[in-house]
TrEMBL record, chain A:
Pfam families: ABC_tran. GO terms for molecular function: ATP binding; ATP hydrolysis activity. Residues 5-230 form the ABC transporter domain. This is ABC transporter ATP-binding protein.
Automatic annotation (TrEMBL), chain B:
The chain crosses the membrane at residues 21-41, 61-88, 100-120, 147-172, 179-200, 206-230. Keywords: Membrane, Transmembrane, Transmembrane helix. It comes from Actinotalea soli. It comes from the Bacteria. This is Uncharacterized protein.
Amino acid sequence: MTNAIDMQAVTRRFGESTALDAVDVTVPEGSICGLLGRNGAGKTTMMSIIAGQDRPSSGRVEVLGQEPFENESVLAMLSFVRDNQRYPDDYRLHHVLRIAPDFAPHWSEEVAAELVDGFRIPARTPIKKFSRGQLSSVAIVLGLASRAPVTLLDEPYLGLDVTARALFHDMLLRDYAAHPRTIVLSTHLVQESEALFDRVVILDGGTVRVSSEAEDVRDLAFTLSGATDVVQGLTARSTVLSTHTVAGLMSATVWGALDDESRTTARDLGARVAPASLHELVAAIGEHRPEPADLALHEKKGVRA
Amino acid sequence: MSAVISTVKLHMNRRETTFLVPLYITGMVAVFSVLISLVFWRSGSQPGSAEWIQGSQSNPGIVYALLSFLVYLGVSSVATTFPFALTLGATRRSFTVGTLLWAAITSAYVAAILAVLSVVERATDHWFVGFYVFDVYVLGAGDIGRLLPIVFLGVLTALTVGGVFASAWVRFGARGPQLIAAGVVIVIAAALIVVVPAAAEIAEAFQLWWLAVAALAAIALSSTGTWLLLRPAVVR
């Protein structure tokens, strides 16, 4: 399968701060990739580089086989609306809807109209006076109606009510089925979105901690719950991503798979073992501070814990 | 090329700001000029007298009123439009070229408007009562051959200078425009230090086309500066 996005050893520094550190990520054409991680993990920086709005300090990025920066033919195939998007002074909704098709060769008036109606985006209010949810709605209209072969959606849910989120999901899946494209979606609402994802990338501190097919994510980590001493004993030699303790009971999210012998021992000692959900994995990785040894161990598997 | 045209259309998308606000401002200046003329009239000055004509034609109100708006328009054409242009898929190169093209179109539009109003003003013997709004020295005193280049180059200078200040802000934040302003002040001061001893001779030899050359230099420097500042700029 051809990759729509290919990032190799991409590093982005801003002065003393490293926003992305040697990132290797590929996203196959026609897939929906969830880009997950805490605030400040590097998600928007990564999308910005993919969209040609920024350049890496080092490394290589290709979108649809070409470098995106200042590349008009690639940029015409891309859509990226950042979560804090600024609009020209005095802009109202009709200004956006009037100009966007000029830059988006695959623009769909029907999709735009349905979303504007469904989100109830005000027509007469200046965009700079929009609420957070209304700004997200405009960003979703731009992202989905463009039908860009590579669509980057940066925190599209911010401020959206439950009805609007359902509309977004419905339109995304419906239009994606009719017009397949590559979509990268960053979000903190992991549970609500995970059913969309074919692929998952988890960033933390500017590094890729997981880059995997969505169906393989449940094999990456497990949770172990039980008496604190039992859980501590069973996880003594494992990479524990996070722990939570309540009244003598402990729940640990542990990297890797539990072998049969350990699973039997856990059951005998009254501990409960379950695969970590994507939500638990993202939260645990966000808490975890990896030791160099952990990194070395998991780099061999193509993922980092 | 298509992204350049799309960028021009992106700027033109603010139709009221680009096409109507200059008309509103011109109308306001006309009203204020008439009111001021009425004050002079009531104070004993006679329309059509040499003193009246001399005083009226010295009124540069139209320039002051338009200048501040045009610099603002130049600033906003980059400060808030550049991030949105990148989002839509414009390259920095096409944005810079498209913005310069839009500025030239806007300059031609304003020049044409003022030229028409100036012709009408003279054709009606200054609105039938001797009021001077556009037939003023700063716009060529009724000479359309002077008015057109004066307004075109003046508007283009205001828009591009506004644009380069905004580009410095996009690139470096608040320090950017401050650095440009400081640099301009230093260059002007240094030039004055050099030419002041010969100021009298220079004033005597002054030709109007010198201003045109200065405007062209400012436009070229501002446009080049805009490109150099926006090329590595990161929108965050």
